[in-house]
Task: inverse folding
């Protein structure tokens, strides 16, 4: 068997199974082995019902004296049974699994595996796994993988296929020299693969995770260094030394630029007239004023005779940028007589509208194009693209960034990000870019008032929200889930929306927003919220990158402990954009003291960079089974914050060995770059 073989070669894989695996990005044997578990379960020795411990995963041994029954009522069909041991009763509860009533036989002994909770004074285990004693004995005291799934692909199937491949033993030749592995204390590659899927113990799992995490970071760092090397050799063929228009624009502003904004603009200006193509990251906290720097940059490019382009990750954000640019440059025209022609290109525009934009770009009737991913389509041709800007850079893949760069002949590149990454990490992650940081907020911006509360505070919070709405303001409520969870008591968008509609007066319009909605549906809701037709928006984190709604003054985050601090800070940035005082309420449902300590960092500071650094110190390199920091880099194993030390090691290693790459590593590099557009976010 070869690693490049199709998964179709594996026993048990037919047309239908192959198609379902393809949906998960699994096409080859190599893809399968690199489809790592998302989590693990440890199966301990079973306990009797009388010995249950609430709040942890347990294997409970018991006999069902009565058959399972259906519980009527509710949106979701429920199946229930009860285990009894003396005075102790344990209710078993399953959702959407009516077939269990025929499969599970009363009078037989079973092992039920799950988390025991106290619900309304009764011990309850929701959605437990069911084992016969002999079957459970085989997995007892082992660490079992849990994979992300899709329809038609279950845990047992992936596990069986992975085992089949791993039986081949040394399928991979390790591309890292033994000397390097010894130097950086890295496990052999085949050992790592075996123990990431089926670890012998916690120690081997840690070793496997370190090696594979290193590989991800190492390949990433090598790719970055190659990109930088190619860019450094690129001559600046779009020089722009005259900044008269930019200086006039600054003079027309109704506010003063901060020292950090002026410093960033000075660095960008120097790139414009330098010997090489600009390739710069503009990193600034939420609300720090990156947009005006983008305007100055594009204005300077247009004055020099070139075209500019700004790409945003969502249609709503692109339209908002377009409206803002048109408005600001119209004021500029009225004061100076300098006219800039702004165009908009999004996927939802009609074919006729798109054709008009295509023609105007080619004939240079558009100076600045603002759009979504639609700007990198094959039909888009610029007359002379000299400046490319991507907003919310962490939302774009490598290939998307390169495609936009390819729309011109060596245009300057400015990438903007509001994601707060400590500078030490940013230097590695954005190694192909020079970095400018806007690390102060505009003078007039009022700091957001924050508080961390327990669920008992909700009635008071709802009264506060109602009062804010009556004053003409708007509110975000963030929930971590879309639908009712079968495993966790987390607030969810759909049920929460219904509940709060009953709590708040009918005159207050409440709507919901989540990632499973279509792009059109999401855009419609956000536009209505922007027009103040909706007062309270219950949403998942899809609003993390959203439109500017200055009228929104309150954000309430449910189950705040389930989010990373950097993401919470990003979410918080949706409020506090107007002149009125804004507030953020973090509802902590869990009782963990460490979680409360982390959330208190947000209360004490509105500085995203400081928050990210503190979060890094608190979380450290461990906590491998905790939730990942979302919204940054889509690495499968490595975590930017938890594994920052490993990232540093990989960066140093790439620098040291970039000119000593063996043939089998080159193959992996080629594969990595092919997949980079989908899997690695820069």
Result:
């Amino acid at each position: 068997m070869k690693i490049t073989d199709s998964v179709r070669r594996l026993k048990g894989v037919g047309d239908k199974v192959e198609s379902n695996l393809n949906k998960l990005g699994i096409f080859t044997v190599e893809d399968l082995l690199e489809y790592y578990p998302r989590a693990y379960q440890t199966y301990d020795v079973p306990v009797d019902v009388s010995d249950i411990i609430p709040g942890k995963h347990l294997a409970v041994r018991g006999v069902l004296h009565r058959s399972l029954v259906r519980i009527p009522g509710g949106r979701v069909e429920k199946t229930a049974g009860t285990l009894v041991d003396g005075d102790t009763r344990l209710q078993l509860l399953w959702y959407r699994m009516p077939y269990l009533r025929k499969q599970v036989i009363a009078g037989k002994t079973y092992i039920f595996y799950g988390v025991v909770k106290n619900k309304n004074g009764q011990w309850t285990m929701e959605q437990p796994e069911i084992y016969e004693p002999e079957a459970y004995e085989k997995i007892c005291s082992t660490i079992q993988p849990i994979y992300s799934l899709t329809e038609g692909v279950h845990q047992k199937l992936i596990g069986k296929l992975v085992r089949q491949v791993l039986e081949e033993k040394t399928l991979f030749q390790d591309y890292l020299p033994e000397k390097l592995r010894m130097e950086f204390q890295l496990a052999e590659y085949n050992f790592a693969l075996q123990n990431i899927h089926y670890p012998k113990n916690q120690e081997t799992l840690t070793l496997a995770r370190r090696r594979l995490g290193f590989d991800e970071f190492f390949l990433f760092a090598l790719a970055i260094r190659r990109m930088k090397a190619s860019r450094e050799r690129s001559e600046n063929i779009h020089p722009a030394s005259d900044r008269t228009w930019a200086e006039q624009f600054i003079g027309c502003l109704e506010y003063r630029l901060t020292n950090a904004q002026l410093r960033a603009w000075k660095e960008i200006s120097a790139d414009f007239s330098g010997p090489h193509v600009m390739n710069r990251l503009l990193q600034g906290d939420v609300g720090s004023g990156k947009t005006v720097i983008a305007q100055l940059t594009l204005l300077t490019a247009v004055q020099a005779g070139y075209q500019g382009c700004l790409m945003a990750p969502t249609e709503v954000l692109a339209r908002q940028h377009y409206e803002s640019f048109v408005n600001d440059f119209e004021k500029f025209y009225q004061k100076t007589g300098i006219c800039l022609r702004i165009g908009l290109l999004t996927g939802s525009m009609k074919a006729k509208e798109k054709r008009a934009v295509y023609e105007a770009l080619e004939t240079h009737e558009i100076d600045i194009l603002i759009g979504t991913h639609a700007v990198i389509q094959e039909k888009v041709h610029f007359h002379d693209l000299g400046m490319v800007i991507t907003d919310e850079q962490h939302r774009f893949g490598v290939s998307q960034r390169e495609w936009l760069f390819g729309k011109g002949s060596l245009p300057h590149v400015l990438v903007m990000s509001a994601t707060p990454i400590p500078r030490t990490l940013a230097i590695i992650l954005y190694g192909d870019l020079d970095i400018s940081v806007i690390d102060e907020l505009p003078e007039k911006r009022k700091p957001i008032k924050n508080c961390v509360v327990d669920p008992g505070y909700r009635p008071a919070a709802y009264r506060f929200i109602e009062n804010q709405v009556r004053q003409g303001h708007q509110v975000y409520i963030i929930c971590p889930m879309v639908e009712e969870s079968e495993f966790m008591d987390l607030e969810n968008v759909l049920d929460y929306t219904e509940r709060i509609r009953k709590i708040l007066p009918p005159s207050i319009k409440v709507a919901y927003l989540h990632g499973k909605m279509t792009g059109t549906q999401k855009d419609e809701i956000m536009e209505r919220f922007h027009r103040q037709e909706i007062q309270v928006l219950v949403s998942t984190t899809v609003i993390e990158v959203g439109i500017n709604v200055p009228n929104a003054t309150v954000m309430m985050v449910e189950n705040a402990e389930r989010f990373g601090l950097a993401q919470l800070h990003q979410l918080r940035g949706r409020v506090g954009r107007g002149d009125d005082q804004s507030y953020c309420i973090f509802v902590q449902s869990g009782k963990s003291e460490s979680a409360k300590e982390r959330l208190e960092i947000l209360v004490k500071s509105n500085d995203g960079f400081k928050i990210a650094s503190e979060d890094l110190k608190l979380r450290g390199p461990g906590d491998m089974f905790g939730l990942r920091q979302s919204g940054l880099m889509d690495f499968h194993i490595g975590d930017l914050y938890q594994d920052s030390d490993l990232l540093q090691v990989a960066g140093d290693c790439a620098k040291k060995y970039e000119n000593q790459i063996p043939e089998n590593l080159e193959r992996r590099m080629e594969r990595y770059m092919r997949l980079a557009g989908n899997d690695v976010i820069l």
